[in-house]
Amino acid sequence: MATCTGCSLLCEDIEAIVTDGGLSHVKNLCRKGHGHFQAVFTERTEPSIDGQKVDLEKAILAAAEILKNAKRPLLYGWSNSTLEAQAAGIRLAEKIGATIDDTSSFCQGLLMERIIAGTIPTCTLDDVRNFADTSIFWGSDPSNSHPRHLSRFSYYPRGDKRQKSYEEERTCIAVDVRKSATAQLCSNYYFRLAPGGDAEFMEAIISVLDGKIPKVADKKKMIELGTLLKKTEYGVIFPGLGMVYSMQDRMDLFERLMARLNEITTFRAIPMVGHYNMRGFNELLREKTGFINRVSFKGGAAAHGPENSVLSAAKSCDAALVIGSDPLSSLPFGTARALSKKPIIAIDPRRSLTTDAAKVVIPSALSGMEAGGTAVRMDGVKIRFEPIIESKRPTDEEILTRIMEAI
Amino acid sequence: MPEEVEVTIVTVRDIFQDEAAKKSRFSLEYEKLSALIVLDKQDMARLAVKDGQKLLVKNDAGSVIIAVKTSADEAHPGLAFMNNSPWSNQLVADSVGECSIPGFKSIKAKLARMEETANVTPITELFSRMKG
Fold first, then answer.
1. What is the rounded CA–CA span in Å between residue A166 and residue A157?
2. What secondary structure does DSSP assign to A130-145, as a single string?
3. What is the ipTM of this complex?
4. Residues of A with CB below 8 A from B14's CB?
5. Residue B115 sits at the chain A interface (C-beta within 8 Å)
6. pLDDT in 10s for each residue of chain B, 132 residues
7. Is B116 part of the contact surface with chain A (CB cutoff 8 Å)?
8. A230 at the B interface (CB within 8 A)?
9. Structural domains of chain B ordered from first start
10. Domain architecture of chain A: domains with CATH
């Protein structure tokens, strides 16, 4: 059995025969996971400096040299690396006084901070499978983002206390600006919001739970929702980026909604984290510094703030190490352009816009396929996995250790 | 004369595009699924375009030429959808608010129809703009 690192569900039941040319006899991989596993055969990176192929040692020494000479280095990525690599990365950041940040900085970080701190109650996906009778997909669309979420945990499976499952015992609700694939599944309980309308919708739910008339157009539907939530025995909200981006500095309202729901019944939240080990990095950095992301070790002590977010540091840094991430594809164009002008060290198993722009490219083994390690699933469960094929490429952890030794 | 239409673009995830990205960000398959905007029927009519035609999408952050597709959803004039990608990120302003989160899901942009022969902006062009 293999573990798929294609998303933060970390499915551990993958079976496949891997040959030189590709995969066959695949079982349990979703379409996204299949693409992830196929990736091991295409567009692999080679060690290079300024686009010229070099041996691995030379690339590592060049990376060390860049970081050693940098006054404001940025270490970014991490959400697609194992806990072991992340720990090595945090040690490297401390050693060279770097800024360190991950994808949560402009993703689920606002929510994850509260989940890890315990101000928003959470549970495991196994609890969802065994106990949940109401699942709310809020600004999330697992049918596209986490394809096996519904079948393994939140809707279809027969859990300990939910043997009659979706036929009788589970209800799914979708709150979204569009009728996504998941919303189509929840058609009886689909609530269409205007972009940015999440806070207003939360206030309306709180009003209904308080027995007040909600200030929305369809009062009847909202009262029906309130009744359903009150009758729920074990409910779980799965917030996606749609909700997080809409709420931003009003996330306290979501805390208030969760608190109100938990006065009536049991409600939990699990953020729909995208990358396979984003949560792992957040937990690890918090353990070390008290902050889940956006940390600078310049001057020795850990400092936290928006100036240390990748969005700022991409512009202010004088060198960047990017690991398992493609910020030149995922950041706003202006920020990506600023970063592309800096000397970038890209550690990645595969070619991307970032590796194309990098001064130094260091190829790494693909986690789950070629490299083992530990990761934290979106719900906080730690998963250990072993490689399923041999590779000559070093792991992220080995590369970071060698860079540190060279520095 | 076709109008210029203003929309708010919300970026979304798509399993097919995600799979294509994992295989290769430089493939035609990824371009086809990324350089695409989904519009409401009313907006399609205002622009006088059919599925597959190309639009210039622009705002203060940047511009891209992408293909258009009619939405199968209930009416949502003024609201458009794009799969999250380097094409949508050309249009995302890098100024951020208090939480330092860019407006990936609230991109204001103007749309204009392109001539029949226009091609979508290739990823190589997006890369050149970055490095240029």
1. 8
2. HH-SEEEEES--HHHH
3. 0.95
4. 144
5. no
6. 567 999 999 999 999 999 999 989 999 999 999 999 999 999 999 999 999 999 999 999 999 999 999 999 999 999 999 999 999 999 999 887 777 889 899 999 999 999 989 999 999 999 999 988
7. no
8. no
9. 5-131 (2.40.40.20)
10. 44-106+276-406 (3.40.50.740), 109-269 (3.40.228.10)
